[in-house]
Amino acid sequence: MIKVENLRFSYFDKEEVLKGINLEIYEGEFIAIMGENGAGKTTLIKHFNGLLKPSSGRVLVDGIDTRKTSVASLAKLVGLVFQNPDHQLFCETVWDEVAFSLKNFNYSEDVIKARVKKILEILDLTKYSNSSPFTLSGGERKRVALASVLVWDPKYIVLDEPTIGQDYRQKERLRNFILQLVTQGKSVIMVTHDVEFVAECHPRVILLSKGRIVADGPAEEILSNEEFVNECSLELPQISKLMKALKDLGVNQKIIDVYSAKSYLVKMLKR
Amino acid sequence: MSLRVFDGFKFKKLNTPIHKIDPRAKFMFIIVIFALSLLFTNLIGLTILFLIQLPLILLAKCGKKWLKTMKGTAFFAILIFIMNFITGSSFAFSLAMTIRFLTLVSSFSLFFMTTSPDDLGLALEQMKIPYPLVFTFTTAVRLVPTIAIDAQTVIDAQKSRGLELEKGNLIKRVKNFIPILIPLIVSAIRRSMELAEALESRGFNTSKKRESYITLKFSSLDYITLILTILLLVFGIYIKLYISLPQIDLPIKFPTISFYKTFLKS
Amino acid sequence: MNEPIIHIKNLTFTYAGLEKPSIKNINFNAYKGEFIVLTGPSGCGKTTLCRCLNGLIPNFYSGEMKGEVYVCGLNTKEHSTSELAKHVGFVFQNPENQLFSLTIERDVAFGLENLGLPKKEIKERVEWALKVVGITHLREKAPYELSGGQQQKAAIASILSMKPEIIVLDEPTSFLDPKSALEILKVIQNLNKQFGITVILVEHRLDFVAQFANRIVIMNDGEIALDGEPSKVLTEEAYLLGVGIPKVTLLFHQLKQENFKFNKTPVTIEEAAIELRRLLK
Fold it and tell me: Which of C98, C122, C162 has the CB atom closest to B213's CB atom?
């Protein structure tokens, strides 16, 4: 479990960015952290692997206090995938890029070989093993960045804006992949403002606004709530807007995704 | 000395009289301080020159940042003092040289903290420096904070993959900078390409003659600054030539070689 | 039928160093005042096509270009990008890398300075562009002081001041939160409706933009696959190409499979609500 206790944080002597966050993230949970730009989402996730240390309060990862541990050791538990893959790619081949972290963690050569091979297969990157990561397309580079973090099999996987610039098919693939990880018992935490993507995934949604948690609950509850959504510069999912437009007909207001909408409407129409 | 010393050279947009002065007038002032600090070797004279800047720094609301710069250059300041003292100069002289150094750093720091790169660019343009050069300069200045943020992101990303920058011997530490440098350079190149594309699409070309939408004009504040600067220069030269400033000193001298000779003899 | 404002004939382009063309056999006409959404899976050639519209191809990006592109009557092979910039404005994805000055006002003037316009006219156009986009109160601010949405508005104002007949926007809302994204799209819609500026908008998230478009062009693998009115184009076929059709449209396709009948395939929430209301009564 990742436990956040009264976390307050400000950069140097500037204004407070996080104003008292209390949060518990359990194993195998799928969470979306949402909120307007500047709400503190990225600042919050950087506390999970110790990149940032609390100004006051504390963050415990499986009982370990992040203030007293190095980023390298916390990283073994918490894998953080940054938004822009170009901020990390530097190796001559995709293979080396993915193996980099395992070398840092002092895994043996045999283990490195096996793990890198496996993750490249899973993410459909085997054909690029010997290619330079710089020659790949944007979407492929994003997959390499993801592979380079998943390769050491962290318990908690944090994704910062994984859907920006991705087309529909890439997002579908990502969604299925995340759901697979969750079924395997991993915790997946994603920072995003892609409301439609979250609506189709049904994670637990945590809404951050101006450094505070304003809402925490299932996606259907949070994303169909106009007040919450407006406070955080988000929009209601399309399906939710549709349900709102039909409110007077007594339609269920908590439906946010296409599949649920279809099942519900088919039932209603067949009556 | 940390990277914080550069904070003292970073422009911050504030609404103070010092910020409002035309960069050309400000630069004249800095040059005169520079010249006078080279002209004087007297401790009292240099101290006064240094102290003149303090009210200006406070007026420009840059006190905190200026202090950070002073702290950052403390290492070099002490080094200058020691180098002068060890080679036989008097205590007063060594201190004077240190203060000269600090005066120079302060004045340039004050200039850059209160002058926006855009205005600086305009000043250069109006002094007939070719536009493409000026644009290169202002863009580079504009990009420094952006690239600094990129650098921090790259460091964060690689740390998150287990990279430990503080560990290992010298060779390992140098090697550990490759995962930082390469993404940074690649990002910088990508950014430049995007900027170039956007420039082209905005009709930027080096052949046509350009008339700048905004031009710098001297206001009364700037004329006052110029007059005060000239007065300072005249006054300074007069003092140097005709008035001898009191010498104050501490009767300390670094042991010279003759002292050692006598010491060894006995 | 009046003359097309964009006329592309048999266009094929291969970037230098690549073997395969990024776009092939493009035949495309756009007419004044259209609001066209250009979409398709990653790698389909959308950005390449856009670059051909303002001369970045072939002037900035080298490669082999076959076929002709005419924009406002000008052949893009025969005019420099800076000349074409008078007619075609380009707004990029990342607001950070398209703002050059330290104040918004000067950025809006930047393009006009490049065109060599007299000061008086620059001043008038800057005031006008700031007002139309609604950011006059931000004129003294530096780009880093603004939010992503405000920065994009500034970028749009900087292009608008040059009074182009066509504005091309390549995924301008990618980095913006949903609220800011909608604001930007409304600004663009206003430019189209009020000033008759032809808009070419590249976007993946059709949920946001389908409501503004009067024409959708879907590309796949370097070619134009579908082109027409939104309700005609956003079909099962589009979905199978990997295009993220609006959720309400997807819902209706699925309901159709359950044998429910509709008058029209909805593309917006309003249309969907009307159809559903009819069915539920």
Answer: C122
